[in-house]
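User: Can you predict the 3D structure of acid phosphatase? Sequence below.
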Amino acid sequence: MIGQVLALASIASTASVVGAVAIDSKFLENDISKIGTQRDIYKFLYGSAPYFSYPVNNSLSFDIPETCELVQIHLYARHGERYPTPGATANGINNVWYKFGNYTEKFNGSLAFLNGDYQYPFDNSSNYGLLTTPDNVANPYNPSLGSSTGSKEALEFYERYSEILEKHPNFTIWTSNSNRVHATSQYFSKALGDKFHINLQTISEDASQGPNSLTPINGCANYNGSLASNYTSKYDKTYLKDISGRLNAENPGLNVTSTDAYNLFNWCAFENNMRGYSDICDIFTIEELVKYSYYGDLLTYYNEFVGNPLSKVVGSVPAQATLKILNTPENELDQQAFISFTHDTNILNYLAALGLFSDNKPLTAEYIDWTTDFHRSWLVQEGARIQTQKYNCKSSNGTSTSYVRFIVNDVVKPMTGCSNGPGFSCPLTEYTSYLNKRLEGVDYVKQCGSTKVSNITDLTFYWDYKTHPYDAPLHV
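Assistant: Sure. Here are the predicted structure tokens for acid phosphatase:
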């Protein structure tokens, strides 16, 4: 059923813009047939490519176990597919395009497609950082637009959790005030349908919010997001020279550098967000994609994940807030579905605090670690999502026990050392003890030095929004 609904939703979305978008026969012939043909490489593209489910499926069912009742569901999600952000990412791609545009010879090899009527997808800088939608791309038929991902996520969420949603048809969704994050939350809300009356609370990303934010890293004045350079400087980057050398051999005088080669990976990913495919992606071998992916894992592990000592501290803010709600009796809650939208870095900090995907030894730059289950692009791809289920289960003697279970990008993720409950869940009492012990000694305000930028000391927006509405102005 959900497949039919999504197909109809996609057709309806496309139909609404077809009249406003000029699409010629070359577009239909050349672009449509390629859409989605590069899904197999999304898992190597640093989380910048379209959404895909966690690629190692343990076949565990999402369904709530028999004799159990779902009583809370929490969704902590990244925005959908987007344009490259202004600054280093967009500038890097544009620098390569400028070099290609000034090449006066015929392109050969994997760049031969540039001899045709190729249209550069990043020429409008006003789109940088925005969610990809039918209104700002040349290919409205791409099913991997950020707008479509937000809508599909909502439809899937409703199919899975309709009963608990319908218990409270008037409920709140929280979003940061980033334009792409906010837009995703709007597409999500709209897709749930008219039966729900959703109160959207928009939380500022400004550092002055301190911990009362969906982006608490911004208020962490002591956070050093460049620790990975101590490791990436030791990583073998000859794969970039291989790419540039191959392109230069095919196109004498082009002078592609290793930096250009690195930026081509971003071009590949973000063009997929817009068109559903990218001819640039065909430049790379599978070995080069793997090496690029692991470089991204190193960057992330030491800048945003457990390799950074303050990542867990920052992530403790949403982790402790969620724990507080999980331990609140449902009859004291105004709603039982808690939905929040933010960015990739904030999800990584959250995962660091939870301890998911952190059982492995620290990543090394000396070689590719084939044993780790930490892969940036598997965890925080565009549209990434973490669901936390709380369900109550009755035993044979009639007593009821609460359990917690995580679903990461459509795959059940049992907790190491605490998965003996129904559906490989963790008893809420044990999870509470585990998280309190894991975060023992963690003090966001003190360790982050947040008083340098904020006088706020706690996350309160899940509770005080009725008396203190959040309506921060949007920014890119």
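The CA atoms of residues 127 and 195 lie 33 Å apart. Residues 1-27 have pLDDT under 50 and may be disordered.
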